[in-house]
Design brief:
The chain is an alpha/beta fold. It has 2 domains: about 130 residues, Response regulator (Rossmann fold); about 190 residues, Hypothetical protein af1432, CATH 1.10.3210. Helices cover about 55% and strands about 5% of the residues. It has a 5-stranded parallel β-sheet, with helices on both faces. Helix 4 links the parallel strand 4 and strand 5. The radius of gyration is 35 Å and the shape is elongated. It starts with 6 loop residues before the first strand and ends in a 5-residue tail after the last helix.
Length: about 375
């Protein structure tokens, strides 16, 4: 926008002052006029918003201070600069007006050169502010676009890695989607629980959901003859199978070493991968952690993983009936699972059954 096309609203109850200012400004600017504060407010809230307002201080009914207060109270008009017009030149009056939000004063009688200079200064300042605001809006939009792009890239990369592990184990089907949804739902149920509310913020639950698909990434390192064995594993084979937890966390840790700063979701993914087979009583693997020593992320995944395994068909077992699944989870309260996590799960058992059905494997 050029200053030649700027629109200026003159607000003055004196027709003489309106005439003088109109004659002075019309050669360079578009000029609007109002003889009362009420009319001025109707104009600024209409279609033709002015770029600058010259506002008489002393007017009947609604004086300049009241008009300015109304302008500043509305988001649509608060950024329009206002120059007060006044015959009162006392320092106290100027200080009052500037404190209330006026950008400058023009004293009466009008001195054309001074008035034009002050008006031009404020219009140039508004141009600069508007340009900066537009630049900031453009920059914010670009930052948001890039963040969303990075976010999608990250999610696709995580899902690709998870599916890579899934291709090694043909029995898992939609296991990734189901366990991710279970974990997110359990966390949401527990977010206001006294034991968990300090950790389970909206942001942390998002990290959990994003990290959960990597819980079995370590299975990529398990030999096919063990990972794909249709029957029960021997003790020796089971020992090898259990190494997938550490293999997964080690892989994520190595990936962390390749970047300059740690990413929170990788830290959570590493916890889940390594400790989702730990048990509340310390009888799990790979490190025999127990109780509060097991990260919350891994405690939630532990229950989600077991629930899905019990409900799923495998070459060596059928899917268990729902009442049996519920009984096993209840029996694991305080031994396999954090008691409060198990309680939240069991209290909303039907929610998790619905998730399982939503992401059921194709026949």
């Amino acid at each position: 926008m050029q200053t030649q096309t700027a629109t200026i609203l003159i607000v003055d109850d004196s027709s003489e002052n309106l005439y003088v200012l109109n004659e002075l400004l019309r050669p360079k600017y578009q000029v609007l006029a109002a003889t009362t504060g009420e009319l001025a407010l109707r104009i600024v809230n209409g279609q033709a918003k002015p770029d600058l307002i010259l506002l008489d201080v002393m007017m009947p009914v609604m004086d300049g201070y009241a008009v300015l207060a109304n302008l500043l109270a509305e988001p649509a008009t608060r950024d329009i600069p206002v120059i007060f017009l006044t015959a009162l030149v006392g320092a106290g009056e100027e200080e009052r007006g500037l404190k209330q939000g006026a950008v400058d004063y023009i004293t009466k009688p009008i001195v054309p050169v001074v008035a034009l200079a002050r008006i031009n200064t404020q219009l140039q300042a508004k141009l600069a502010r508007d340009w900066l605001k537009n630049q900031n809006a453009t920059l914010e939009a670009e930052v948001a676009r890039r963040m969303e792009e990075n976010n999608l890239t990250q999610q696709v990369s995580i899902r690709a890695l998870a599916h890579l592990a899934e291709t090694r184990d043909t029995d898992t089907g939609n296991h990734i989607l189901r366990t991710q949804s279970y974990v997110q739902h359990i966390a949401t149920l527990l977010r206001h629980h006294p034991r968990f509310e300090a950790l389970l913020s909206t942001q942390y639950i998002e990290l959990l959901a994003r990290s959960a698909p990597l819980h079995d990434i370590g299975k990529v390192g398990i030999p096919d003859n063990i990972l794909l064995k249709p029957g029960k594993l021997t003790p020796e084979e089971w020992t090898v199978m259990k190494t997938h937890a550490k293999l997964g966390s080690d892989a994520i840790e190595h990936a962390e070493g390749d970047i300059e700063r740690s990413l929170p979701f990788l830290s959570v993914a590493k916890e889940i991968a390594r400790w989702h087979h730990e048990k509340w009583d310390g009888s799990g693997y790979p490190d025999g952690k127990c109780g509060e020593g097991i990260p919350v992320s891994a405690r939630l995944m532990a229950l989600a993983d077991v629930f899905d395994a019990l409900l799923s068909v495998r070459p060596y077992k059928p899917a268990m009936p729902l009442d049996k699944v519920r009984t096993i989870i209840a029996e694991g309260r305080g031994t396999h699972f954090d008691p409060d996590v198990a309680d939240a799960f069991l209290a909303h058992f039907d929610d998790f059954v619905a998730i399982a059905r939503l992401h059921a494997d194709e026949a």
